[in-house]
Amino acid sequence: MTSMRILFAAALFVTLGSHARAGEKRLREAARRFIREGDHDALVEVRRARNAAWPVLEAIASAGRRFPSAPTGRLSREAALTHDPDFSVRYELFVPPDYDPATPHPLLLYVHGTYNTGATGMRRILPGFRESGWIVLCPSSEIRDRGWTFTAYERNMQLDALRDVQKRYNVDPQRIYLCGYSRGGHASWDLPLRRPGVFAASCPMAGGPRIRNIRFLPNLAHTRLRAEYGALDEKGLVWCVRKALETMKALDIPCTAVEHPDRGHQFPIDAEAIRAWLEPLRRERLPRRITCACSDPSEGRSFWIRLDRLETTRAELPAAGRGRLVLGGEEVEVVLRGVPIPRGFRDRPDEARWAYFVEKADAYKAWVEAEVEEGNVVRARTKNVRTFTILVSKALFDLEKPITVHVNGKRVLRRRVSPSPEYALRFLARSPDWTTLYVDELSVHVR
User: Fold this and answer.
1) Cα–Cα dist 209/218, whole Å
2) Beta bridge partners of 88
3) Which residues of 181-212 are buried (b: 16+ CB within 10 A; e: fewer)?
4) How far, in Å, are 84, 180, 353, 364, 386 from residue 296 at the CA level?
5) Contact 93, 77 (CB under 8 A)
6) DSSP secondary structure string, 381-392?
7) How far apart are CA 5 and CA 190, in angstroms?
8) Which tens digits make up the pLDDT trace of 240-277?
9) Range 10-18 average pLDDT
């Protein structure tokens, strides 16, 4: 009789285990179907599984995205624009012949100069990267004779091309780098300043950050920068680059300056030296302390912090006039912004005027500086922010305990977060970076 009971228990154990494995398989297939196709029924199935879905979702995130075989060599493609679906961005792409879809690869986004195209940029930078196993991406400007516009539209064109490549190829999110010359040099300052946390490093050449953007330099805390320029270049550009580098050192942000004392705007591109400098650098996966500064909520995301509502009238530079610009193939009217100019301003020396703009523009921004401390405590300082969001991950927080948030010296929140399988699955479906799985979020109201 005892033997029969043992056999029955063993059979029951095997049956239950078989059912559990079958259930996990169904959940895994449903989760991947939602990630791949956005299937609503698959989302409902994962939602109903509740806590049973967590091992499946964590295993999917840990394994990384699956990529099919894809073309290699020199390619030309187009990507739809996120904010203007009637238009697309053309880009040139180089994929190494030994590309392996199962292996994450480093990627260089190179932004070309004025009067050039993505194909021209590819010819200039590729010799230093062709044999290195890197993917090289060179988007084209829609208007060849226009310089960098420092607009969200222009930034989105580059990032849309990058996202399109990330959907097709296995790109390592910790090894995405930025580089450019002249117009592309301006872009190589502008993009990491306005979209922090994306690039591991940036190498602007013969370009500057623009005076009004120096206020966003804290966003480079987790992006290494190598600025190369000619000392005889346009006077304002050189002053702006030097001022930015000086400010970064004062903020204790690592930066490298390569100055050509006898050159102006033109100097040879040493692509191999750029690659050698970039290769050992990696983006920090999940820093415990971050700063995010912006003037528009669409650019207010850095790692696990997202700025949602700003004191807009204080975060944006005041309107100073109107101008016209070609965007999306059409000429549109845009608002020009700047700080108020006092009487006699134009009679001041150039350096005094530039320093005035840097000083006055610094007040016009919204920012959050936040740190996760031991004991599930977040301490944050803010300026011109009404609400911000903390993206919660098991890597930073103990979800068995409540999270306490202090803002500007006052405790504003203490709450336990229950991980949401639906939230995590939606995150996996839209994010190209699965190295950190966010399981829910906390909205913080600044008093």
Assistant:
1) 13
2) 80
3) bbbbbbbbbbbbbbbbbbbbbbbbbbbbbbbb
4) 18, 25, 26, 11, 13
5) yes
6) EEESEEEEEEEE
7) 72
8) 999 999 999 999 999 999 999 999 999 999 999 999 99
9) 44
Half-sphere exposure of 11 (CA within 13 A, CB side): 6
Phi and psi dihedrals of 185, rounded to 5? -70, -40
**Count of Cβ atoms closer than 10 Å to residue 406 Cβ:** 17
Please give the structure tokens belonging to residue 212: 């009004």
> At which residue do the structure tokens 């590729």 appear?
126
Q: d(Cα 157, Cα 149) in Å, to the nearest integer?
A: 12
73-284 sits in which CATH class?
Answer: alpha beta
Residues in the chain: 447
Instruction: Lowest mean pLDDT of 75-79, 143-147, 296-300, name the range.
Output: 143-147
Residue 423 structure tokens? 């939230």
d(CA 434, CA 441): 16
Residue 428 clears pLDDT 80, i.e. is over it: yes
Q: Which residues contact 185 (CB under 8 A, 6 or more apart)?
A: 113, 204, 205, 206, 207, 208, 229
Residues of the chain with CATH 3.40.50.1820: 73-284
Among candidates 161, 189, 192, 179, which has minimal Cα distance to 432?
161
Spatial distance between the Cα atoms of 102 and 386, rounded to a whole number of angstroms: 43
Q: Beta strand pairing status for 366-373 and 377-383?
A: antiparallel
Candidates 371, 373, 429; CA nearest to 221 is 371
Neighbouring C-alpha atoms within 13 Å toward the C-beta of 270 = 11
Confidence band for 23, pLDDT divided at 50, 70 and 90: confident
pLDDT for position 153: 87
Residue 156, pLDDT above cutoff 70: yes
Burial classification of residue 423, based on how many CB atoms lie within 10 Å of its CB (0-12 exposed, 13-18 middle, 19 or more buried): middle
Predicted TM-score (pTM) of the model is 0.92
Residue 249's closest CA among 220, 210, 282? 220
Q: How far apart are CA 428 and CA 437, in angstroms?
A: 8
